[in-house]
TrEMBL record:
Name by which UniProt lists this protein: Rhodanese-like domain-containing protein
SMART domains, A to Z: RHOD
Limits of the Rhodanese domain: 14-101
Secretion signal span: none
Pfam families: Rhodanese
Organism: Sphaerisporangium corydalis
PANTHER family: FAD-DEPENDENT OXIDOREDUCTASE (PTHR43031), PYRIDINE NUCLEOTIDE-DISULPHIDE OXIDOREDUCTASE (PTHR43031:SF1)
Top-level taxon: Bacteria
Coiled coil: none
Length: 110
């Protein structure tokens, strides 16, 4: 997929009520994630791609944007309409976007 342009959006510009796909590892997810996000770790994405809708934009996030860029490129390659969230969950948190944690503590980005 070298040479493919990956569509990107700033965390502040992600619309509410979209399909948000978080491709981080389970420990990262538990530490803090967007309340409406769907969690499919990057390593499971090809096996679970049928859980990703077609015909609607899919916004993809990881910790800082690298894994989500790879996921976005692959999803677009297989016919999904994917957009990478620049800066990942670090930018999401810095922008003050909603987050929840499953570790019983304050949300943070590991």
């Amino acid at each position: 997929m070298d040479g493919m342009t990956v569509p990107e959006i700033e965390a502040t510009a992600v619309p509410d009520d979209v399909f948000l796909l978080d491709v981080r590892e389970p420990d990262e997810w538990q530490a803090g994630h967007a309340p409406t996000a769907v969690h499919i770790p990057l390593g499971m994405l090809q096996q679970r791609v049928n859980e990703v809708p077609t015909g609607v934009p899919v916004y993809v996030v990881c910790r800082v944007g690298g894994r989500s860029a790879s996921a976005t490129a692959w999803l677009n390659h297989v016919g999904r309409e994917a957009v990478n969230i620049e800066g990942g969950m670090q930018s999401w948190e810095a922008a003050g976007r909603p987050m929840v944690a499953e570790n019983g503590g304050r949300p943070f980005v590991a």
